[in-house]
Design brief:
By secondary structure, this protein is mainly β. 10% of the residues lie in helices and 42% in strands. It has one domain: Sandwich (Jelly Rolls), CATH 2.60.120. Strand 7 and strand 8 form a beta hairpin.
């Protein structure tokens, strides 16, 4: 009898754990760029932008004066509890080759890579302070002609970002005011931009994620 009861308890625990694991699984990745055409992306009319093209499976954002970018047309595929992942490379210049403007619920925000002279990484803006002067400000070396894998995770109360396998941003956003700099207003709701630099973006995809317990 004792063995039967213990077996039932173990079985129930295993079942519960399996159910919890399944409920926290992420969805499969969905591509946001097919590597052949811009699709839902369109060149952002910043003024002074370079001519955006698709070459060798990548979106090419030529050096602008000062900005070039692409913006997602229509509603974004997600607003919270999601991840975006892509590869990015700077081929010319020494400033940011990737500024990803994204929704965090009803608020916009921008992940900046290699800003302010080429090494600043951070979120613009947090409580009115941009990526160069808030709690997400960090520094990371970037080389031209090298691909970097970027992953951004947005949850209802948290934003995290990685470059390759290194986590550079880990921010609780509950009670914080998110916004963007006026330069990237045309990148809303979802957009990528460069600043006096040429950049390339490929393998761009997203997926929804369950909130971590």
């Amino acid at each position: 009898m004792t063995r039967f009861i213990v077996g039932c308890v173990v079985g129930l625990l295993a079942s519960g754990c399996a159910g919890a694991s399944k409920s926290n699984q992420t969805d499969p990745w969905t591509s946001l760029f097919d590597g052949q055409s811009l699709g839902n992306w369109a060149s952002t009319p910043f003024g002074g932008e370079g001519q955006v093209t698709v070459e060798d499976g990548a979106i090419v954002l030529p050096m602008g004066s000062p900005m070039t970018g692409v913006t997602w047309q229509g509603r974004p595929p997600m607003r919270t509890n999601y991840e975006v992942e892509f590869q990015a490379m700077r081929t010319l210049g020494n400033d940011f080759f990737c500024a990803l403007t994204f929704p965090a619920g009803d608020q916009p925000c921008t992940l900046v890579l290699a800003g302010w002279g080429g090494s600043v990484v951070g979120l613009s803006n947090i409580d009115g302070a941009d990526a160069s002067q808030n709690e997400t400000t960090t520094f990371h070396p970037f080389r031209n002609d090298q691909w970097y894998r970027v992953r951004l995770r947005v949850e209802e109360d948290h934003i995290a970002a990685w470059v390759d396998d290194k986590q550079l941003i880990d921010l609780d956003i509950a009670g914080k005011r998110l916004s963007i700099r006026p330069e990237v207003e045309l990148s809303r709701p979802l957009g990528l931009a460069t600043w006096t630099s040429e950049g390339r973006i490929k393998d761009l995809r997203w997926r929804s994620v369950a909130r971590e317990p």
